Amino acid sequence: MRRVLALAAVLCAALSLGVTAAYAIADEYAGPKLWTLGDEAQGSYSTSWYEDDFAKPSSGYQTWSGFKRATDYGLQGTSNSNQVTVYQWFSSTNKAGHCIYQSTSG
C-alpha cells in the first residue's frame, strides 16, 4: 500500500510540475522528467506486470504505452494523446513496461 501511495504522490507532483512519468503499476521506471521526441524508457522484466501507464501534464501529447516481450523483444501496446495512456495485458508472459514519447506539441 505504501508503494501505491508513494507512486500517487510522485505522479501528482509530476503533473503539477508539467513533466511526465511512465510506470508499470507500483513500479515507476521513468520518473518525472522532460521528454523530447523519440525518447523511450523501459522497466524490468517480470511475469507479474499487467498494466503500463504514461502520465502527462495534459492531453495533446502523443505517447505510446505497453510492454516489451522478453522472448522476441517485440512491442505490444497502445498510442494516444490522452492525459494518461494506459495499456493492460493480463498474461503470464515475461515482459517489461515500455513507453515512447511521440510528440513535441500539446
In CATH terms, what is the fold-level topology?
Jelly Rolls
E-strand count = 8
* Unreliable stretches covering 5 or more consecutive residues: 1-18
Bin the helical content: 10-25%
How many strands, what sense, and barrel or not for the largest sheet? 4 strands, antiparallel
User: What would CATH call the architecture?
Assistant: Sandwich
Mean pLDDT: 80
Number of helices: 1
CATH first level: Mainly Beta
Radius of gyration: 13 Å
Strand proportion, as a percent range, falls in: over 45%
Shape: elongated
Order of adjacent strands in the largest pleated sheet: 2-1-4-7
How many individual domains? 1
Order of helices and strands: HEEEEEEEE
Task: Please describe what this structure looks like.
By secondary structure, the protein is an alpha+beta fold. It has one domain: Jelly Rolls (Sandwich), CATH 2.60.120. It is built from one helix and eight strands; from the N terminus they run H-E-E-E-E-E-E-E-E. It has one helix at 2-17; strands at 20-24, 27-33, 40-46, 51-55, 63-69, 75-80, 84-88, 95-101. The strands form two sheets. A four-stranded antiparallel sheet has the order 2-1-4-7, with helices on one face. The longest helix is centred in the N-terminal third of the chain and has 16 residues, at 2-17. The N and C termini lie far apart (33 Å). Residues 1-18 have low confidence and may be disordered.
